Amino acid sequence: MKLAWYAKLYIYLVFCCSLIVLFFYFDPYSIKNPYLYFAIVLSSIISFINMVNLKFSFNLLSIWYPILYFDFGFSAALGYAILDGYVCHLIRKEQFYKLIFNFGQIILSIFFTHLIFINIKSYLPSVQFISYIIFHFCFFFTNFLFLVSILIIADIFNKKLIKEALSIQIITFPIYYLAFNAFHTSPIITMFLVPIVIYLYKKKIDEHLLKYLDDDYIDYQTYVYSRKYIFEHFSTEISHYPVWLYLVEQSQGNSSNDFIIFLRNLCGSQLFCRYSSNRILIISQGQICDRLKTAKIPFSIKMIETDTFNLEAALTDLEQELNKITRKSAKQREIALSNSVRLATIGQLAAGLAHEIRNPLTAVKGFLQLYSLGNKLDTETIQLMKTEL
């Protein structure tokens, strides 16, 4: 989505504050047991390949933050935040503002959690579980505040966010705490287990999605959702408004799968729906008009600013508008083809005329060359030259 200047200013402010925190507080030499730390980082990179997002910006890789903080120190958690922000960007192919905001959000969340924790640490009982709950809650709460703030500033906040965030908190807490305890029992086994668990978890989610997808699974993290899924998605899942609906027509000469992959590379991680055999619906929270125009893909666009709208009517409007665009494009192609045929005919005619003119002139030129060498031209030859001319 196109952000207002004050939303961009807020994102830059969050990002700059995170750089200040890194400059003053990140000390790689203070990381306890660096070899084990880098092994965790390697495990995380493998886990990133099997990334599982639980709506919004929450992902299961947050598992490592409390482990790194309690066992390796504050700098270890900051270092992991850098990795989290950058690798997440590579995997998800996020836009620039999303990248720098996520980067600032996670680093400042760790920093404020650290400040809260060190100030109340002396008042806590010496029970690991209590310390973990406090850290986990503070980290979640500060992270959530940053997320809510940018959504409010960008005017896309929805009350359903609070309910969903709480449900995510309930779902993830047992998983996080199990991993926390498992690491203290057997660090090496836990590092192997985390990528496997995330892979199996993602596979389970994929199996659930495939009930809707049929043959629409294209490749890694590339989906084209069925019409049924889109209608269910809009009725239950979408809570960020406004969104843009783009209906695009498949280019001639490309297979459906190739065209979807082309769209995915062109538009990034948008939500796709095969609306008909040769038309695909793109649901986006950002404007992608320029990219579609550059690629010369016929498309129609509709902006949705409320969660109470008729999807069937919106698709009908898009379909009608795209039909007009397609007819206009077809007419332009027909005119262009007609012009090219006309030009080709003129070219053939010109080539034929040139050939018919060149041959007689060549004969006349030959006789003149003989004359210039001193040969006399008899009456018959002169008559032939006149005929050719």
Q: How is this fold's topology laid out?
A:
Elements: H1 5-25, H2 34-49, H3 64-72, H4 74-92, H5 96-120, H6 128-153, H7 160-185, H8 187-213, E1 217-219, E2 222-223, H9 227-236, E3 243-249, H10 256-267, E4 271-274, E5 279-284, H11 289-294, E6 299-304, H12 311-372, H13 379-388
Antiparallel strand pairs: 1-2, 3-5, 3-6, 4-5
Helix pairs in contact: 1-5, 2-4, 2-8, 3-4, 4-5, 5-6, 6-7, 7-8
| DSSP helical segment count | 13
Give the overall shape: elongated
The domain count comes to 2
Indicate the structural class.
alpha+beta
Walk across the major sheet and give the strand order. 4-5-3-6
Mean pLDDT: 79
Specify Rg, calculated over alpha carbons.
Answer: 33 Å
Helix proportion range: 55-70%
Largest sheet: 4 strands, antiparallel
Query: Unreliable runs, pLDDT <50, ≥5 residues?
Result: 212-222
Percent of residues in beta strands?
5-15%
- The tally of beta strands, per DSSP, is 6
Catalytic activity: ATP + protein L-histidine = ADP + protein N-phospho-L-histidine
InterPro entries: HisK_dim/P_dom, HisK_dim/P_sf
Domain Signal transduction histidine kinase dimerisation/phosphoacceptor: 347-373
Pfam families: HisKA
Keywords summarizing the entry:
Alpha-Beta Plaits, four-stranded antiparallel β-sheet, 69% helix, transmembrane helix, kinase, transmembrane
